[in-house]
Amino acid sequence: MAVAYKEVSEPDKEKTQIRRLVNRVLKERRLSLIVGSDVELGDDSTDQPAVWIWLLIDPRSKLTKSELGHINELARSIKTEIFQNNFGRQPYVRLRTAA
Fold first, then answer.
1. pLDDT attached to residue 11
2. Is 55 exposed, middle or buried (0-12, 13-18, 19+ CB in 10 A)?
3. Domain span at residue 55?
4. Is residue 5 a part of any domain in this protein?
5. pLDDT tens-digit profile of 76-99?
6. Cα–Cα distance between 99 and 8 in angstroms, integer?
7. Distances, alpha carbon 39 to alpha carbons 18, 56, 66, 78, in Å
8. Measured between alpha carbons, how far is 34 from 57 in angstroms, rounded to an integer?
9. Which pTM value belongs to this model?
10. 22: domain CATH number?
11. Engineering a disulfide at 50: which of 44, 63, 76, 97 sits with its beta carbon 3.0 to 4.6 angstroms away?
């Protein structure tokens, strides 16, 4: 029986690389209220390549000013990593409640 080989597209490879990068930064920072992440590739409103990184927040969390400060630091770290790894995409980090 022949097995069909499906080649992974460049956007899929790039998305996987960015997802790994985000997961590494999340693991290093260990913010308990962040329970996951999601990555979307596309073009932003200026038709430039972009990546949206959604940080999934525990829905039971009550965010404090201090925690928001840590999330902002985390977002900056993620953006810096995206730029330093030359993905050629504008990173947008957003928060979303986990389902």
1. 67
2. buried
3. 10-97
4. no
5. 999 999 999 999 999 999 999 887
6. 28
7. 8, 11, 25, 12
8. 5
9. 0.82
10. 3.30.300.30
11. 44
CA angle (79 as vertex; 63, 48 as ends), nearest 5:
120
DSSP string, 27-87: HHH--TTEEEEEEEEEE-TTS-EEEEEEEEEPTT----HHHHHHHHHHHHHHHHHHHHTT-
Whether 15 is covered by a domain: the verdict is: yes
Give the confidence band of 18 by pLDDT, cuts at 50, 70, 90. Answer: very high
The single residue listed with the structure tokens 């308990």 is 32
Q: What is the pLDDT of residues 68-81, one digit of tens each?
A: 899 999 999 999 99
pLDDT digits (tens, 9 = 90+) for 27-44: 988 888 889 899 999 999
Residue in the structure block whose two tokens are 């993620």: 78
pLDDT at res. 46:
94
Q: What's the CA gap between 9 and 87, in Å, rounded?
A: 15
**Do residues 49 and 92 touch, judged by C-beta distance below 8 A?**
no
**Element (H or E) spanning 96, and its range?**
strand 90-97
